[in-house]
Design a protein that fits this description.
- The chain is of the alpha/beta class and 469 residues long.
- The protein folds into two domains: 352 residues, Alpha-Beta Barrel (TIM Barrel), CATH 3.20.20; 91 residues, Immunoglobulin-like.
- It is built from twelve helices and 19 strands.
- The strands form four sheets. It has a nine-stranded mixed sheet with strand order 7-6-5-4-3-11-10-9-8. A six-stranded antiparallel sheet has the order 12-13-14-19-16-17, covered by helices on one side. A two-stranded antiparallel ribbon has the order 1-2.
- Helix 6 links the parallel strand 6 and strand 7.
- Helix 3 runs parallel beside helix 4, helix 5 runs parallel beside helix 6 and helix 9 packs parallel to helix 12.
- It is globular.
Length: 469
């Protein structure tokens, strides 16, 4: 009997853990776990086609891998971009009967249920997009079709909200689209209000915008908008993602902001400049496995593991409340032999262990050692030249001056003003963002101004952490 009671208590405890919800921090800058008010570190992964393309065994493999790698959030779309309402899921099921959002297909949504709850069991929050933006009118149409007006958007939102009210998730509206006009705004408003009604206001909402935009550009004052999300996009190496964070942090009322789509690992830089988005593109340089065999046509190159680290550290040190990693094969859930949307280098399973993905856990490690929720951007700490681009340096300090974190995308000499920190004596260490190792420095004082990054064989990035004694 005592054993049965223990099992019941254990199961109920797990149920409480999986259904934990997020809230906004008292200073309105970060997300917190509602139950105990601890800061929530948003380290996301982009899995837009997860519900649509993977079967249950594949989904478990994906979710387990990302949980082991330290990710905390998975972003996925119910009505997916790749013809997600007319091409069935892995079990041959479509989301609606007769393409009607008022007639959901129970079998389809049982698969969504399974994936969300398996993710929750692994401690993963699911960032759920009810639909990709091409199912609502926009000036940048996609596969579509356009399904939603004000009435059925509200009904669909209420259906989803009610169904998932006890699951650990946030709602992400939008899906790579601007809001074209006031009529379109009423559609998204209606879906948001439906979600809020259905889940009784248990989950936070945000909006995923088109590239180089923030939700704050057109929805910041919407009552349902709990935090902002920006898409820093895929246009260039060393994208100044910090400008998005800085702009959102200056808005009133204050709301947290997250980089929901920065440059993806293994995606061609400014890929749209090379593509017409027609069937059969690049067939002459694509192998039988469906991946590129010659990258030279994309002469701007591909974002790599270092690229994703640069943007992650720049985001957090600029005051972003979160960062969502992405890999070009993983967002598509690209399988061997399939046709890609954007040219891939591997299939999705191999891409799970690309260098950038494997280094994400060290970002979490660092910002849990020195809480991201207590830092404020502090570019004034850097008194040497600090240009934009590959040699740009980002810095943040603890709100009470207890420590500083300085990130360098490339080795260089630089000068700091330590008078911004508390005290006159300090300890420090160099943190290797590739493998999480540390190099401890000797104690020093305020007269330590000029610094050099540690010697390394490659043009590696480094993090300097300085603690006040």
């Amino acid at each position: 009997m005592r054993y049965l009671v223990f099992i019941l208590v254990f199961v109920l405890s797990l149920s409480d853990l999986f259904s934990q919800q997020l809230a906004i921090s008292p200073n309105q800058r970060y997300l917190i776990n509602e139950e105990d008010s601890t800061p929530f570190f948003w380290l996301g992964d982009t899995a837009w086609e997860l519900f649509h393309k993977l079967d249950r065994e594949e989904a478990i493999h994906y979710l387990s891998t990302r949980a082991e790698q330290g990710f905390t959030v998975i972003q996925a779309v119910i009505l997916a971009e790749r013809d997600g309402v007319r091409t069935p899921n892995a079990y041959g099921e479509l989301p609606f009967h007769d393409l009607d959002p008022k007639q959901p297909n129970e079998a389809f949504f049982q698969h969504v249920d399974f994936i969300i709850r398996e993710g929750n069991k692994l401690g993963l929050l699911i960032g759920v997009l009810p639909t990709w933006g091409d199912k609502v009118y926009s000036e940048h149409p996609g596969a579509g079709p356009i399904l939603f007006g004000e009435e059925n958007a509200r009904i669909f939102g209420e259906f989803l909200g009610d169904r998932y009210q006890d699951d650990n998730l946030v709602w992400i509206l939008g899906g790579d689209r601007d809001i074209a006009n006031d009529t379109v705004r009423t559609v998204w408003d209606a879906m948001a209000l439906g979600l809020k009604k259905g889940d009784k206001g248990k989950h936070l909402l945000t909006y995923h915008p088109r590239g180089s935009r923030s939700s704050g550009d057109y929805l910041h004052e919407a009552e349902w908008m709990d935090f902002n999300m920006y898409q820093s996009s895929h246009a260039q190496f060393y994208t100044p993602v910090y400008n998005f964070a800085r702009k959102d942090r200056a808005r009133n009322p204050i709301k947290p902001t997250i980089d929901g789509e920065p440059p993806y690992e293994d995606i061609p830089v400014a890929f749209w400049e090379y593509m017409e988005f027609k069937p059969g593109e690049f067939a002459d340089i694509t192998g039988e496995d469906g991946n590129l065999i010659d990258k030279n046509r994309f002469d701007k190159g591909f974002f790599d593991g270092k690229s994703v680290r640069v943007h992650a550290y720049w985001d957090f040190l600029a005051g972003a409340a979160g960062y969502t990693y992405g890999n070009n094969a993983v967002w598509q859930m690209h399988k061997k032999g399939e046709t890609f949307v954007i040219p891939t280098l591997t299939d999705w399973k191999e891409a799970l262990n690309r260098p950038g993905a494997k280094s994400m856990k060290y970002i979490r490690k660092l910002f849990e050692m020195r809480s991201f929720a207590s830092i404020i951007p502090a570019q004034e700490l850097i008194v040497s030249a600090n240009p934009e681009g590959e040699n740009h340096i980002r810095a943040a300090i603890h709100e009470d001056g207890k420590f500083a974190i300085i990130y360098l995308a490339n080795p260089q000499e630089f000068t700091l003003d330590l008078s911004l920190l508390a005290g006159e004596r300090f300890t420090a260490f160099w943190f290797n963002p590739v493998d999480g190792s540390r190099f401890i420095l000797s104690e020093f004082g305020l007269n330590q101004k000029v610094w050099n990054t540690p010697p390394s064989e490659e043009e590696q990035d480094w993090v300097l952490v300085i603690d006040s004694k």
